[in-house]
Amino acid sequence: MGLLDGKVALITGGARGMGEAHVRLFLEEGASVVFGDVLDEEGKALAAETGATYVRHDVTNPSEWERAVDTAVSTYGKLDVLVNNAGILKFRRISEMTLDDFDRVIGVNLRGTWLGVKSVIEPMKAAGRGSIVNISSIEGFVGAEGLSAYAASKFGVRGVTKSAARELAQFKIRVNSVHPGAINTSMVMDPEIMEAVDADAFVKSMVIKRFAKPVEVSHVVAFLASERSSYCTGSEFTVDGGLLTGAGY
């Protein structure tokens, strides 16, 4: 028996990295999964391999949100879970960052999350309950050099999560945020970031001295999507190996 048996989930940014791990684990746990991305080649390949349903999905576009949600409801009859996973990271110091770059990060990470919450309210009300899991970051708690736009967006995700949790509790829709730390994905391992960061010092600052596998985040996301977290809403879950304990950070 799976943790998510009978659930229908929509996962954004699901073609690779953490999103791919979410897709795979949700399927293993019994969910029916629709996932979106702008990476068509990777998305179609993952769908063909796993049996999940892929839809091209730019999370900054309201009409594409409507299409993704409609795909889930028309294919599986309802929508129980949204994982707002899609995100981008641009390493630039404020003095060097263009306004277009800033707007792009805010657009995907924050506008996309807000649009996701807005887009699933009616189908979740129709289902009688729901769970929204917003993927933020430890950068939603602390700033980091070169990541002003990313940190701003992830701080914003925290605010959207808490407001939505209050607004949607009356409909039995729970809203929580997950805050990954050092996860071994292509986004985090971007060469620009690696060049600017002292990797040895960073690892030494960790309590658990390694980067996480993406699925280690997925297990927390699946818990929040499931009925086992039925009394959790507006909460913030760190998956950071102790980085935010303050030890050397």
From TrEMBL:
Which keywords does this chain's UniProt record carry?
Lipid metabolism, NAD, Oxidoreductase, Steroid metabolism
Show the coiled coil region(s).
none
SUPFAM superfamilies registered for this protein in UniProt: NAD(P)-binding Rossmann-fold domains
Q: Where are the transmembrane segments?
A: none
Out of the domains of life, which is the source?
A: Bacteria
InterPro entries per record: NAD(P)-bd_dom_sf, Sc_DH/Rdtase_CS, SDR_fam
Output one GO BP term: steroid metabolic process
Gene3D superfamilies associated with the record: NAD(P)-binding Rossmann-like Domain (3.40.50.720)
Which GO MF terms are attached to this record? Answer: oxidoreductase activity
**Of which family is this protein a member?**
Belongs to the short-chain dehydrogenases/reductases (SDR) family.
PANTHER family, from UniProt?
3-OXOACYL-(ACYL-CARRIER-PROTEIN) REDUCTASE (AFU_ORTHOLOGUE AFUA_6G11210) (PTHR43180), NAD(P)-BINDING ROSSMANN-FOLD SUPERFAMILY PROTEIN (PTHR43180:SF28)
Record-given protein name: 3-alpha-(Or 20-beta)-hydroxysteroid dehydrogenase
Q: What is the lineage of its organism?
A: Bacteria, Bacillati, Actinomycetota, Actinomycetes, Streptosporangiales
